[in-house]
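Minutes, project check-in
Item: structure for the 262-residue chain
Input as provided by the requester:
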Amino acid sequence: MLDKAKLRDGLRLILSISRHGNQYMQFQKPWVLVKGSCEDKIKAGTIIGLSCNLVCLIAIMLQPYMPQTVNIIGKQLNVDISTFLLNNFVSIFLQPGHKIGKPAPLFDKIDASVVNQLKSRFAGKQNSPEKETLLVPGLDLTQISSIEQMEEAISKQGDLVKSLKQGKAEKSEWEPYVKGLLEMKKSLEQMKIASNPISIDDLEKEISKQGDIVRKLKEAKVEKSELQPEINLLIQLKSKLSLVKGLPADNGPKKKQKQNKK
């Protein structure tokens, strides 16, 4: 499994063996048999011996995954796990008469207080605060009443953002101005729509018509240089429709994220 980088499959197989071993112990109940007749005591010894060999087998298989834990198991079994090799035959790792070491829990119980400490330490930022919006000093959007004034304000805001980025300012410094710039551009689009009102029905007809154009071009398998401008126009029309309806702008289809193969 490790050679083929199938780590989870390997662990799943090991846990399956462990589960069967646990079921075997629970079903046979050697702790009850050891209190019975001589025959029962012999049977109990056989069950415990087989179970110890299963533990040794599991430790051998776990060695690449959990070497430190395997070392602890080896001390409890009183053997050096690294000396064993797996083969295609049934093997007895612990011979009759072998004395094991002192058994003890492999893992400590984690208290609730420790869990809370770990959560607070590694939880990270769950809720990021809303980004601040900043404008060019002295700029007051409430005083803007025309498209020309808004375009001039956008130009100034854009110049400021450009100068901050060119000056290699920190992202936290220029990002609030970018947010302000985007909001101003959205306001400009709304002002243009208000100055040249168009009905939703007319927009939907234009979108349908443009969609047919894009569809036919795709079916004709035209060059991308010819197709892309028509797609951009369709996206613009959809964004305008969203603004008229008071919805978030439609910026076209989102790119699908590639899923990492496990």
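Outcome recorded: The mean pLDDT is 82.
No further action items on this chain.
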